[in-house]
Design goal:
single chain, about 300 residues, alpha+beta, Ubiquitin-like (UB roll), 6-stranded mixed sheet, 5-stranded mixed sheet, 7 helices, about 25% strand, UBP43 hydrolase, hydrolase, Papain-like_cys_pep_sf, hydrolase activity, Ub_carboxyl-term_hydrolase
Length: about 300
């Protein structure tokens, strides 16, 4: 047994004979976690990958691993948990990684590239007869925000998510009609045919997902629904790590969903080879050699002196 003082570097060596020794067993330091990548490309748009994440790591570690796997910058990755009923939560970098993926599968979204908006001609603007919260908060809305969308159908116990989750980059001053058209354009791959919505808000409702406040719906009568104060609160609470974003749930009634989408359920995701490889590696019983046990037993450690010595 060798003991070295960290201050004076004096070393003390002792030799103690013994006939029996208790060795520690090295424990596994990682666990398998599947993450569904939602990439901004035509091929491999939805792919589930398997990762060996550290047991004592944080979401920041997961963000770095997902960025390497998807070949995107880490600051562009949005991590969120989804369930068969919709969004659960977004994952922030300081969060512990031990609980990630337990409540629902983890999705990693890559935002669409930012495009510079063309200048709009200024003209006379008429105020609505009834003032709304968004009008008072944002007189001249500008900029673009990221929206995470998922589609649900039914209510109560029958509530279910269907179709692929989406990520959009929208202007804050977009109208309800234009927002509805943009959402339908993202869903054109799973729609039965071309849809021409009649009237405002005739096809679905949009609810702000998450948060402790009561359910907040965007109003079809609001000229700028994305300027609602609840949107600002959601942006502030989106957490550290990744671009700020807002989670929205698009709610469809059963008849409209069946007419436009048929019996479509959740998105079809293809598993990468890493999913099987990580499940196989972590599904096996963890084994170690006697030499690894001795290495852990003889590993150098810092011994703290008791108070007052």
């Amino acid at each position: 047994s060798s003991l070295t003082c960290p201050h004076c570097l004096k070393q003390s060596n002792t030799f103690d004979p013994f006939l029996c020794i208790s060795l520690p067993i090295p424990l596994r330091q990682t666990r398998a976690l599947n993450v569904t990548l939602v990439l901004q490309c035509e091929r491999w748009r939805f792919v589930r990958v398997g990762l060996a994440v550290p047991l004592l790591g944080t979401v920041a570690d997961l963000r770095e691993m997902v960025a390497r796997e998807g070949r995107v910058p880490p600051e562009q990755v949005i991590l969120a948990e989804l369930s068969p009923r919709g969004f659960l939560r977004s994952l922030a970098d300081p969060d512990a990684l031990a609980a990630a993926g337990e409540a629902g599968p983890v999705y990693a979204f890559q935002p669409p590239p930012a495009r510079r908006a063309a200048p709009r001609p200024e003209g006379p603007r008429l105020l609505p007869s009834t003032a709304r919260s968004s009008d008072c908060l944002h007189r001249a809305p500008g900029g673009r925000i990221l929206l995470l969308l998922c589609n649900t159908v039914g209510t109560g116990p029958q509530l279910a998510r269907f179709g692929p989750p989406l990520v959009l980059r929208e202007e804050r001053g977009v109208s309800w009609e234009q927002l509805q058209q943009n959402i339908l354009a993202q869903l054109r791959g799973v729609l039965r045919g071309e849809i021409r919505p009649q009237g405002s808000g005739a096809l679905f409702r949009i609810r702000l997902a998450g948060g402790s406040a009561p359910c907040t719906y965007l109003s079809p009568q609001d000229p700028r629904p994305l300027c609602h104060p609840a949107i600002d609160r959601a942006l502030q609470l989106s957490g550290a790590g990744g671009p700020p974003h807002v989670r929205l749930t698009v709610e469809w009634d059963v008849s409209t969903k069946e007419r436009l989408f048929g019996s479509i359920q959740e998105e079809a995701v293809q598993d990468a080879e890493s999913v099987r490889r990580q499940q196989q590696a972590h599904g096996q019983q963890h084994s170690c050699t006697l030499d690894e046990c001795f290495q852990l037993y003889t590993k150098e450690e810092q011994v703290r002196a008791p108070p007052g010595t």
